[in-house]
Amino acid sequence: MNDMKIQSIGFLIFDGFPMACLTSMIEPLRASNEISGQVAFSWTLYAETMDKVRSSAGVSFEPDMALGQAERPDHLFLLSPPMAQFSNPKAGYGALRTLGRHGTILGGVSGGVFPLVRSGVMAGQVVSVHWCYEAAFRSEFPEVEASDQVIEVSQRRHTASGAAAAFDLSLRLIETRLGADVATEVACWFQHPLMRGEGVRQSIPTYRQSSTDATLPPVVAKAVAVFAANLTEPISVADVADEVGVSARQIERSFKKATGQSPSHYYRSMRMKAARQLVMYSKDSMAQIALQVGYGSTTPMVQHYKDAFGLSPQEDRRRINLYRVQDNSPVPSV
């Protein structure tokens, strides 16, 4: 996985674009790079010219590159208010059509679907349209099928209805690229309801089943809570079963069915995730970290850490420090 090609994501911004839509896509991608330990995604801000672009919140952004210089990103998402126009429509829309013909997956978020459709690249496609823009969209584009789904994804076109939907779309990109575990952890970093996919109406948010502790069966959820409260002082499966009020055998069966793991392995995974947070976000020594996750010495903790993450905690700390301005200062919070 470390040898995979970096997936390039472009954002074409117009004056008045919703800033939340931009950050809702970039921040999950940034987090997935950190969590996975690799640069799986890169992103570039495009605009029609190199002039600053002012968002709807009044915050100005400097584009990295003009649209005419775009080097065929893997994806290009348009972010704009509905009435956005190119100052040179022929060149702007032509550039989008050229990118689409040469393999770039084109998309739009919120009002960005309007210039996307105006470019002529959405013929025969279904477009996710925010409910507050639906009437205007249907009036301007009666021949285009507008959808009330949170996102609409086809092989070459992706659209999302708003900022939260843009986050869902990024989670989808992350899941496709790096797997469901990374996408789930990204969602939990930001306390985001887990990825809503196709077939979900904007007015009815739903969650992916069996993706977080909140969806676990009651017996397993209670056991997980007991494990979580005993990361520093290890507790046996038998003691957990007594506290939950069931037999150890039932705990074993329930964990296997719900998680595919034994309770002891699940508990170890919880301890390793706690250890990794300390490695990433603290200056504690390895000995201190080992004690905080229930190990009397560093040796078994380091071995279990390597088993879980493929590298030692010392190596992991050096890796995460590459994302920091000053060595071993905390990573910016999410």
What does this structure look like?
- There is one protein chain.
- This protein starts with 6 loop residues before the first strand and ends in a 14-residue tail after the last helix.
- Helix 5 runs antiparallel to helix 6, helix 7 packs across helix 8 and helix 10 crosses helix 13 (313-320).
- The strands form three sheets. It has a seven-stranded mixed beta sheet with strand order 5-2-1-6-7-11-10. A two-stranded antiparallel ribbon has the order 3-4.
- Helices cover 44% and strands 13% of the residues.
- Strand 6, helix 2 (89-101) and strand 7 form a beta-alpha-beta unit.
- The chain is α/β, with parallel strands linked by helices and 334 residues long.
Integer average pLDDT: 86
Q: Helical amount among residues, as a percent range? A: 40-55%
What series of H and E elements makes up the topology?
A: EHEEEEEHEHEHEEEHHHHHHHHH
The proportion of strand residues reads: 5-15%
**How would you classify the helix and strand content by structural class?**
alpha/beta
Q: What spatial order of strands do you see in the largest sheet?
A: 5-2-1-6-7-11-10
Largest sheet: 7 strands, mixed
- Radius of gyration from the CA trace? 23 Å
Helix run count: 13
Shape: elongated
Give the low-confidence spans: 201-212, 323-334
Number of strands: 11
Question: What is the terminal-to-terminal distance?
Answer: 25 Å
